[in-house]
Amino acid sequence: MYDAAMSNIRHSRWAVPALLSAALLYFALNLWQKLGDSFAWDFGVDWTASQGMRQGISLYDPARLGALAQQLIADPQTQALFSREFAGYINPPSTALLLLPFTLLSFAAALATYRLVLLIVFAAGVALAGLALPPGERRRGWLLGALGLLLLRPVIVSIQLGQVDAWVMLGLGAALWTTARQRWIATGVGLGWAAAFKVSPALLVVYLALRGQWRAIVGAGVAGVGVFGLAAALGRPTDLGLFLFGILPSAAKGTLYVYNQSLPAWLARLLSPETNLIDSRISLGPWQYASVPLLLLGLGAVWLVARRAPQHPLTLSLLIPVAILTGPVAWDHYLTWMILPLVQMADRRAWQNMDGRWQTALMGLLVLGGVLMSIAGLVLSRTILAQPEAVAAHWWWRPASGLGTVGALLWFAVGLILLARLAAAVPVGGERADRVL
User: Fold this and answer.
1) In this structure, is residue 14 part of a structural domain?
2) Which of 80, 176, 277, 286 has the most CB atoms within 10 Å of its CB?
3) Do 381 and 294 share a structural domain?
């Protein structure tokens, strides 16, 4: 089924252009609609914090940054910025550092420019991830990656918000590419870059440390020191400490808020008596501690399945959904990162000699997972309007709040099956077989 589908697409003169054109039209229409929907909250917060960095204001001083936002951004919605924890700046100093060049422009010009840059960076991340595949498989990987970028709604959400997911994917994509070539210092640099913006990709660094790839740890350390050292030099040196010992422990408590698509948050919404799912100030409570066993379970599953091919790029990429889903906080736009393991699943060796019914089933699960991750935002936009009494009266609000979580889990499950088949094809003691990538 997989080989036949890909062969038909490859040998048809018009199939790929027509498919990509339709996907591009869908993307353009949905992006245009989304850009007009609401204010770019995340970019507003991060751009203001970057302006504060230039003026010597602490990134974690919500009162001064809130006043600065109202001064610099001509939009009445700025009054809500910095008004509570998840409406303020809770990123590491690296995000403010990244946006420094955009502070030279007005807010409107900076936002438009940044969104254009995000399109390029998203494409670059997928392109790098595709280079991890064998030469003959790269077009398949790039095609799947392009379809993921154009059809998955979390990509549109990330661009509309002005988030940093594209930069995370750039680092992760570079790490996958260099893993295929066993350039471990460069792999560490890519992972260190990604982890500098979002903490969860640090799980991939931990995995490589457990596998004894100490050069990757060196590379991650170099990237971290470089990024945060520059942020300290251009901003306030104490801000990193405030993030590590103040903001991070507080954010680690998580939130029941429906846009949190982590597995602990979804389980909490399913099983706790709380009916207010639209207030980001309500923490996960004891459910935050579910992150540890869930992380160990996911890490253990990848470890066991990949024991014959521990450093294959698909192995590393399957740690991405583990990192996303097991933390206490995983906003819906984090699901953009799932495109990278999808690219690695294009490796034909994982599909060879598979029963046609299994191929059909796995491809169906991939499609279903993509649909769930895409419609999750649409469902959430309705869930956000549900008052606590409506959640109490209608049981289906609770499971519906985790459609993105379920979609990512489906892709993770398919990836594990494909990795098991791929690992079985690696000769015993044959980790060097990855050199063919």
Assistant:
1) no
2) 176
3) yes
Return the structure tokens found at 14. Answer: 């018009």
DSSP structure class, residue 336 = G
CB atoms within 10 A of CB 73: 21
Structure tokens at 398: 């609770």
| 9 pLDDT higher than 60 | no
- Domain stop point among 216, 251, 286: 251
**Domain membership flag for residue 16:** no
Chain-centroid distance, C-alpha 150 = 15
- Cβ(221)–Cβ(231) below 8 Å: no
Query: Does residue 49 share a domain with residue 74?
Result: yes
Q: Tokens 């602490």 appear where?
A: 58
User: Sign of torsion, CA 146 164 207 132?
Assistant: positive
Is 23 part of a structural domain of the chain? no
**Which structure tokens are listed for 179?**
């893993």
Q: How many domains does the chain have?
A: 2
Q: Which of 235, 251, 267 is the last residue of a domain?
A: 251
HSE-up of residue 290 (Cα within 13 Å, Cβ side): 18
Phi, psi (degrees; rounded to nearest 5) at 236: -100, 120
306 lies in which domain range?
136-162+254-437
The Cα 231–Cα 91 span in angstroms is 13
Answer yes or no: do 218 and 152 share one domain.
no
DSSP states along 3-71: HHHHHHHHH-TTHHHHHHHHHHHHHHHHHHHHHTTS--HHHHHHHHHHHHHHTT--TT-HHHHHHHHHH
Using CA atoms, how far apart are residues 120 and 138, in angstroms rounded to an integer?
19
pLDDT in tens, 192-222: 999 999 999 999 999 999 988 999 999 999 9
Diameter of the chain measured on Cα atoms:
64
pLDDT tens, position by position, 98-128: 999 999 999 999 999 999 999 999 999 999 9
| CB contact set of 282 (below 8 Å; sequence gap of 6+) | 255, 256, 257, 274, 276
pTM: 0.91
Residue 123 shares a structural domain with residue 157? no
